[in-house]
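Example S7 (structure tokens).
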């Protein structure tokens, strides 16, 4: 049995439609290549898929532009004239807009005011006043933002300073670091002075009682004293 005839209508399934497009596109490109080789024909194919993707085949001996030129010569029409006229019209509009903007800039700088009427001068004045207000608001916003940033930095520095003070005070109160306050220092000095006085008294007593030399050392001398 032969293959059944396929009904020519739009394929609803997206995947099947894309697969069929790819297969038939390759088949058309193959036929175009065969025409180019067998018949020395100049073939140009331009195809767009349903997703907008471009596929084209051009004979090796030509280009798309040459194909369009041959088409225009054969049909006696100009495909580019209408497009060129539209481009020229767009260019003229852009030039007018550019000249208007340049003139407005010069007028805001105080130049090119000779031919302006009173109404035009009043309108220019209002525009400049509005612009100044916008610039002033922006300036105040920038100043406020910078001020707030500086305040945050100062606050952070004060917090860091406070934390360092608390950390230092905690170390001062910790005996393992050997750091004492003024009162502790005074007690230590007094204790050292007392020990010196006791040592001096022991030496003086030993000088007046030589018989105590064999009495058992400096500790005994202190006890006898």
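Recovered sequence:
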């Amino acid at each position: 049995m032969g293959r059944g005839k396929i009904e020519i209508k739009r394929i609803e399934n997206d995947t099947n439609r894309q697969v069929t497009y790819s297969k038939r596109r390759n088949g058309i490109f193959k036929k175009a290549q065969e025409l180019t080789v067998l018949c020395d024909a100049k073939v140009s194919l331009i195809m767009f898929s349903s997703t907008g993707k471009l596929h084209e085949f051009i004979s090796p001996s030509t280009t798309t532009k040459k194909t369009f030129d041959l088409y225009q010569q054969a049909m006696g029409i100009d495909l580019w004239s209408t497009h060129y006229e539209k481009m020229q019209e767009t260019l003229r509009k852009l030039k007018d807009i550019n000249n208007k903007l340049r003139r407005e800039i010069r007028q805001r700088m105080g130049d090119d005011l000779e031919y302006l009427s009173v109404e035009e001068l009043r309108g220019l004045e209002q525009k400049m006043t509005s612009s100044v207000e916008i610039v002033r608001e922006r300036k105040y916003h920038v100043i406020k933002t910078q001020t707030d940033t500086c305040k945050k930095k100062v606050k952070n520095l004060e917090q860091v300073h406070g934390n360092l003070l608390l950390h230092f005070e905690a170390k001062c109160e910790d005996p393992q670091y050997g750091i004492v306050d003024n009162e502790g220092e005074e007690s230590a000095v007094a204790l050292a002075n007392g020990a010196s006085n006791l040592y001096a008294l022991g030496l003086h007593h030993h000088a007046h009682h030589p018989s105590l030399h064999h009495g058992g050392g400096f500790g005994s001398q202190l006890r006898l004293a």
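Notes on this example. Residues 209-225 have pLDDT under 50 and may be disordered.
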